[in-house]
Amino acid sequence: MEIFQHILNALQFGSFYALIALGYTLVYGVLRLINFAHGDIFMVGAYIAFFVAVSLLGTGGLPLGLEMNPALALAITVPVTMILTSLVGVALERTMYRPLRRKGANRLYVVITALMAGLMLENGNLALLGATRKSFPDLIDKVVWNLGDGVSVTNLKVIVIVAAIAVFLFLETIVSKTKIGMAMRGISYDKFAIPLMGIPLDTIIVFTFILGSSMAGLAGILFAMSYPILEPYMGALIGWKAFIAAVVGGIGDIRGAIVGGFLLGFIEIGVVAVFPSTLRDLFAFSVLLIILWLRPTGIFGVAQTTKI
Amino acid sequence: MQKHTVTIGIFALFAVIAGLAQAGLLTPYHVSVLMFMGVNIMLATSLNLVNGYMGEFSCGHGGFMCVGAYVSSICTVLMFSKNQMLGAPLLPGYLTFIGFPVALLVGSLAAAVAGLVVAIPSFKTRGDYLAIITLAANYIVISAINNMEIFGGPRGFMGMSATENGMKAVLDIPWMLIFVMLGTLFTVWLLRRFVTSTLGKGVPAISQDEIAAEIMSVDTNRMKLIAFMLSSGLAGLAGGLYAHILGYVNPQSFDIMRSTEIMVMVYLGGMGSLSGTALAAILFTVLMEALRFLGVWKWVVIPLLLILLMQFRPEGLMGNKELSDLFPKLRKYYSFK
Amino acid sequence: MSLLEINGLTRRFGGLIAVNDFNIELGEHELVALIGPNGAGKTTVFNLISGFYQPSEGSVRLNGQDTKGLRPHQVTALGVARTFQGIRLWGEMHVLDNIRIAQHYRLGYSLMDCFLRTKNYTQREKAIDAIAWELLEAMDLKDCAYELPRNLPYGVQRRVEIARAMSVKPSLLLLDEPAAGLNSSDVEGLIKLVRWIYDNYPVTIWMIEHQMKVVMSLCSRIKVVDFGTTIADGTPEEIQKNPTVIKAYLGDDTI
Questions:
Q1: A289 contacts in B (CB within 8 Å)?
Q2: Cβ B220 vs Cβ B213: under 8 Å
Q3: What CATH number does residue C42 fall under?
Q4: Using CA atoms, how far apart are residues B253 and B103, in angstroms rounded to an integer?
């Protein structure tokens, strides 16, 4: 019954990838911008969660003089982290991407700016907090449910998986059912016509960044709770992988991010179950490369047709 | 005679640099900075062919550099040095003068073949999707080498210094510096010849309007194949030189961070400008050394500087202009027939 | 043997039939027009000929050779050049380069020649240059040889595009709405230019055009399509009187 254990692990890993991939895909879907800083926003989210949590628990951080019980601390940490992380995302958009967009700079320069912003977040964190790893406090009591045959699942795993699916449903509803979602889709078709229709372009874009970054913040908390060791480069590899997952799913499509994220989770766990774990990245990336060779626009992506 | 001024000037400069290094007037530190400058020029100009001239977004150049570095290192170690896995040297040291260039060539060819991984998908897809393929290719190369225990895996691979030692045993001059300078000149020369020919101009035609290019008789698949393979092959050459400068390589030095650095040089210099990219590579190398005192803050300051550059001069230092466009008088002093 | 022979050409996009059973035969040195209301499938026919689309059914033969499976640049190498409805010049390269690049299929030198700058390379580049300058001179574009296309007036851009097509040395020149967006004096110039090309080169010109003035003053034969199907074929006089054509353009007043 080892296989069920692997499936659960795959679902958990896939959830992290999916949550981060959603942020890439949202911004890309609206702006056609690969926000390469997104993986590092996830890292910042995890650190923010750490500082909020230890401040509330009274074990470090800001001397608030509080000694909350962990459950209450968690209840406050989640929204506060999501808000603070989305502020980071919005700050990047306001200070870096928007001025470039206004100047009509080549799209690639915006991408490079995003890459550089990510490096700044990573190394700024390293410079400010040092290379020592932070260990995240326990906010919930670990409960292990034995499902028989040696298969066990922790409450945390269930929370992660449920959170990913809930976030997917929430975003899918926003994008496909609400007016603001319609505006988001509109921008991706024609950035120039949207303001003419009386839709505030910049507001919608800021909203997109809020959504994407707060999801990265949520992923940060959940990741820190599952793997309670934080370091400045934790966002880099997982961010790149999530990005590849988003593209394999069909970047710009929310379903694609979820499917790509879980697919990557399953491939990785599947490889590790059979081969030595050092081969994980090699196999995972090779499979993704083959998928892109066969379906160049990803699983849900629609090929753009050019008219002449 | 006037037409050859620049060519003569370049060789004179090379001779002066080599002479200063030989006389000990340049410290080993300065010599190594100069060599890395050369390697960076090679990497940035070769990437510019794809990212600048062809308008694609290849972000895995470090992977091709890695292939070149490892393949040429394995060749020279096999030939000239004693290795636990690969056994005793096969050839005497004085043959390094032939062996080293051959090893570099083999490394470049291997990297060019690796370029096919990206070139073939580029027939069908472009833009962001192709960017991911290059990114994945970079990761695949790194993790493949990480898993090759015979070449040291993540611990790295060494023994390449035997090559320069073999040369120095014959004549004690800074051989590696000379090879790097020649390699840099060769790279820029080759790229320059390519992009100024009508054949090579098919590459920017693809970037500016691929459909028009295909319909107006440009074989776009062939052009993409040439551009990607030439670009990755020259990156492989740069990798080979890099490995032999250090005498030691490990897979981590060719990861996404390296690819990002190379991209930064291209965009700093301006897409579609060889001289701009070369200048940017020089500037970037100097900046990296000059800001060493900042310690960990270096990698906060450098991205910040680049972000500011993008804000105030989004087309890079030179845009798509060459030095000769900005200073037309220069044209009198060289000829690229 | 005719220059271009199209038999039963059909192209479907999903459920939409863009071109339906299209037939035409063009001989050497003709000047023909293809007209029809917007969305009638005219450009699709050109796209099928130039290899940009593959036909769903039917065949396109150039000098007897079936072009099935050929990529667009290979079709061009057989002597078919075209212009586009919206101008598609390479905007960041000067006019001279635009005209040089369109000679790619007969470069006549290899990549090695290019690296080594062999004698063959030098000679071929000279020949390519000569052809380009000859065309620039003939089409009165010499003054803007080093200008970027995007800095030129629209009418001049059109001329550059036609010059680029002519540098392919085509036996069949397809002009897709050459007069679109031109003012009346530019249209006069265009008519003169097309006439001049027709008189001076051994080329068959086939144009899609909406401006009847252009069509009537240039073409000896007109083919009319609507909803992908040919509804008339004949001389300008015949077409002007054809009731089906009038109905297609002006609508049916019996409703």
A1: 117, 133, 136-137, 140
A2: yes
A3: 3.40.50.300
A4: 20
Examine residue B4 and state whether it is found in any structural domain, yes or no: no
Range of the domain at B279: 32-333
Total domains in chain C come to 1
**Which residue in A106, A302, A306, A308 has the most chain C C-beta atoms within 10 A of its own C-beta, making it the best mutation to test that interface?**
A308
Residue B21 within a domain: no
Give the pLDDT band (50/70/90) at residue A299.
Answer: confident
Which residues touch C21 (CB under 8 Å, ≥6 apart)?
C8, C9, C10, C58, C229, C230
- Find the CATH number of the domain harbouring B281: 1.10.3470
Q: Report yes or no on C213 lying in a domain.
A: no
Domain count, chain B: 1
Closest CB to A244: pick one of B132, B142, B263. B132
Best of C92, C112, C126, C131 to disrupt the B interface (most B CBs within 10 Å) is C92
Hey, where are the domains in chain A? 22-229
Q: Which DSSP string corresponds to C54-103? A: --SEEEEEETTEE-TT--HHHHHHTTEEE--SS----TTS-HHHHHHHTT
φ/ψ (deg, to 5) at B256: -55, -30
How many Cβ pairs within 8 Å bridge chains A and C?
7
B130 belongs to a structural domain: yes
Distance from chain centroid for Cα C167: 12
Whether the Cβ atoms of residue A204 and residue A183 lie closer than 8 Å to each other: yes
Residue C241 domain boundaries: 1-78+224-255
Residue A53's identity, in one-letter code, is: A
Residues forming beta bridges with residue C66, ordered by sequence position: C61
pLDDT at B279: 93
Enumerate residue ranges in chain B where pLDDT < 50: 337
pTM attached to this predicted model: 0.91
In a domain, B132, yes or no: yes
Structure tokens at A100: 């470039």
- Distance between CA atoms of residues C18 and A245, nearest Å: 37
The token pair at A125 is 């964190």
Contact B170, B100 (CB under 8 A): no
Question: First CA to last CA across chain C, in angstroms?
Answer: 46
Residue C152 lies in a domain: no
The angle formed by the CA atoms of residues B2, B4 and B5, to the nearest 5 degrees, is 70
DSSP letter string, B198-225 = TTTTHHHHHHH-HHHHHHTT--HHHHHH
Q: Are A297 and B125 in contact (CB under 8 A)?
A: yes
Q: Kindly list the residues from chain C whose CB atom is less than 8 angstroms away from the CB atom of residue A308.
A: 43, 47, 52, 84-86, 88
pLDDT higher than 90, residue C2: no
Could you give the CA distance from residue B189 to residue B202 in angstroms, rounded to a whole number?
Answer: 18
Dihedral angle over CA of A169, A174, A175, A181, nearest 10: 180
- Which of B212, B217, B218 has the CB atom closest to C88's CB atom? B212
Would residue C219 count as lying in a domain?
A: no
Indicate if the pLDDT at residue A79 is higher than 90: yes
- Ramachandran category for residue B272: left, alpha or beta (phi over 0 → left; psi -120 to 50 → alpha): left
pLDDT band at A167 (very low <50, low <70, confident <90, very high): very high
Amino acid present at B100:
F
C67 lies in some domain? yes
Backbone phi, psi, residue C75, to 5°: -65, -45
A296 → chain B, closest CA residue: B125
Using alpha carbons, select from C170, C180, C10 the residue that is nearest to residue C84. Answer: C180
* Phi, psi angle pair for B166, to nearest 5°: -60, -40
For the four alpha carbons of B290, B292, B295 and B300, in that order, the dihedral sign comes to: positive
List, as one string, the DSSP characters of B75-116.
HHHHHHS-BTTTBS-SS-GGGHHHHHHHHHHHHHHHHHHHTH
**Neighbouring C-alpha atoms within 13 Å toward the C-beta of B178:** 18
- Mutate which of B116, B140, B148, B298 to disrupt the A interface (most A C-beta within 10 Å)? B140
